[in-house]
Structure formats: structure tokens, C-alpha cells
């Protein structure tokens, strides 16, 4: 596959704005599905984590972090993709994987604390405010202010990257390949936003299913303790205790809503991203 298609790469600011708008669109629209997925993955089980009640708990945290997280990802991804494709000797798929991995590392600086707070609010028996939840997370670790932040708000940064990078390495080469192939079949420079949305939905759903075990480990580590309230000490501890107490099937908890959420979310997200990108590029060229 050659990616030297005629599709014009967006400027940094356009990618940032389009990504931020797309991220907010999908996170707010599909938040209840994310809540159900998180509760299915919680150590205590779906009902204890809240069941079908309060499916919008944590929406404030998600809304606060979705725009900057998605903006960071797409501005980094689009910039690195152009640099790697133009200046590298590797296949384009490798360039897309590398660019997506770098983008995820940047986005997780915002995404991880957002997800820690959001997961706590989604599974808490008592409905705390956003500020109270952040304070509660910070108090879970003793020591210096740095340990409060790294051990609290950034708890799970490593496992989140461990989940996001394989996900991105599956999704984005497929997404770029499907877009390019579809455009060429129509003798066009690029496919339409709706076609790009379909490509994002298909590639995202496949990547979501394959990386579900990593998502389960990430969710449980962020929640901080098992069903008996015993704190986890790290990813290996989460994996060991999950397998011992619940078996391998627990690693696939929430796979159905995760695939559904990311498939629908991929359609909304990439459709919104390509639409906003086209509108911003058209406005930029008009001026």
C-alpha cells in the first residue's frame, strides 16, 4: 500500500480543532454505553457497580477531557504521519502505526486522569461531584504531592498506553488503507466523510474486540482495588488476581458493549473529524 494519495494533510491547528470537536461529539453522545462497559468490567460485578442506574455519572469528567485529549491525538498523529511517510523508508502502514502510537502517548497525558476520575464516578455507590471525586482519588496515595498525582490521577498510565498502542496499531493502518482503497475505486483523491466514518467504525470495532483483555486490566487498575477492597499493586497483580478469582472469561468482560461503543463511536468520531476537517480546510482556503 502506498499512502502517497492526493489527500491533503491538514495543518496542525485544523487537526487539533477537528479532533477536539470530534472527541467531544462521540464521548458525550455514547457516554451511557461506556458506563455500562466500565461497570461490567468492575471487580465487584455489574450490579454492585451501579447496574443500569445513573448511566450519566462521570459525564462531566468525560466532557472536560475529551476535547483536549482528542485534539492532542490528532494534531500529533497528522503531523507525525506526514513526517514519517515523507522522510522514512518504511512501508506506509508502519508509518501510520508509529504516528498513531506517538499520538496515543501524547493524548494519554489528558486521557488517563480523565478516565481515572470518570471510572470512579461511574462505579461509585455514592454520587460524588467531580471535585470531590478528584480529591478522593488524590487521597488514595500517601507521600509527596507528586506521588498523589502519579499514583492517583495517573494510576494506570502504563497499562493505558499498553492498551491504546496495540489498539491504534490495528485501527489506524486499517482506517487509512480502507479510506485510500475506497477513494481509488471511485477515482477520487479522498473518500467522503460518511465513507471515512464507515472505515473508522469497521477498523475500530475489530481493534476493540482484540484489545478487550487489556481494557479490562486498565479499568480494574484504575478502580484501584478488587471486589474485597484489597488494593492492586500493579498490572501483574491485577492479572493474577483476576485469573485466580474469576478465570480467563473475566478478561473478556464487557466485550460486547466495548465493540458496540467503539464501532458506533468510530462512525461518529471519524465522520465528525473528517467533516470538521473539511469545513475548516474549506474556510481556511477561502480566506
Automatic annotation (TrEMBL):
Name of the protein this chain belongs to: Solute carrier family 25 (Mitochondrial S-adenosylmethionine transporter), member 26
Pfam families: Mito_carr (PF00153)
CC annotations in GO: mitochondrial inner membrane
UniProt keyword list: Membrane, Mitochondrion, Mitochondrion inner membrane, Repeat, Transmembrane, Transmembrane helix, Transport
PANTHER family to which the protein is assigned, alphabetical: S-ADENOSYLMETHIONINE MITOCHONDRIAL CARRIER PROTEIN
Ranges for the Solcar repeats: 10-83, 91-181, 195-279
Topology of this chain in the membrane: Multi-pass membrane protein
Main location: mitochondrion
Lineage: superkingdom: Eukaryota
Subcellular localization, as worded in the UniProt entry: Mitochondrion inner membrane
Transmembrane portions of the chain: 12-33, 54-74
Record-level GO BP terms: transmembrane transport
Species whose genome carries this gene: Fistulifera solaris
Assigned protein family: Belongs to the mitochondrial carrier (TC 2.A.29) family.
Amino acid at each position: 500500500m502506498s499512502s502517497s494519495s492526493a489527500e491533503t494533510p491538514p495543518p496542525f491547528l485544523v487537526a487539533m480543532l477537528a479532533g477536539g470537536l470530534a472527541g467531544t461529539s462521540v464521548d458525550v453522545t455514547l457516554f451511557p454505553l461506556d458506563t455500562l462497559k466500565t461497570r461490567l468490567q468492575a471487580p465487584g460485578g455489574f450490579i454492585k457497580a451501579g447496574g443500569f442506574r445513573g448511566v450519566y455519572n462521570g459525564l462531566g469528567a468525560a466532557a472536560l477531557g475529551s476535547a483536549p485529549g482528542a485534539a492532542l491525538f490528532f494534531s500529533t498523529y497528522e503531523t507525525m504521519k506526514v513526517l514519517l511517510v515523507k522522510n522514512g523508508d518504511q512501508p506506509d502502514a508502519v508509518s501510520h502505526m508509529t504516528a498513531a502510537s506517538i499520538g496515543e502517548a501524547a493524548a494519554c497525558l489528558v486521557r488517563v486522569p480523565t478516565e481515572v476520575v470518570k471510572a470512579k464516578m461511574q462505579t461509585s455507590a455514592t454520587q460524588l461531584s467531580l471535585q470531590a471525586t478528584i480529591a478522593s482519588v488524590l487521597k488514595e496515595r500517601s507521600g509527596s504531592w507528586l506521588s498523589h498525582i502519579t499514583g492517583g490521577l495517573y494510576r494506570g498510565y502504563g497499562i493505558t498506553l499498553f492498551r491504546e498502542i496495540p489498539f491504534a496499531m490495528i485501527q489506524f493502518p486499517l482506517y487509512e488503507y480502507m479510506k485510500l482503497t475506497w477513494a481509488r475505486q471511485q477515482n477520487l483523491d479522498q473518500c467522503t466523510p460518511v465513507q471515512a466514518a464507515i472505515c473508522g467504525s469497521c477498523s475500530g470495532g475489530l481493534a476493540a474486540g482484540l484489545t478487550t483483555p487489556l481494557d479490562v486490566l486498565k479499568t480494574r487498575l484504575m478502580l484501584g482495588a478488587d471486589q474485597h477492597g484489597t488494593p492492586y499493586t500493579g498490572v501483574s497483580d491485577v492479572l493474577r488476581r483476576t485469573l485466580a478469582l474469576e478465570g480467563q472469561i473475566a478478561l473478556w468482560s464487557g466485550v460486547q458493549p466495548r465493540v458496540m461503543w467503539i464501532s458506533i463511536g468510530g462512525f461518529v468520531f471519524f465522520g465528525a473529524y473528517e467533516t470538521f476537517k473539511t469545513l475548516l480546510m474549506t474556510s481556511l482556503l477561502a480566506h
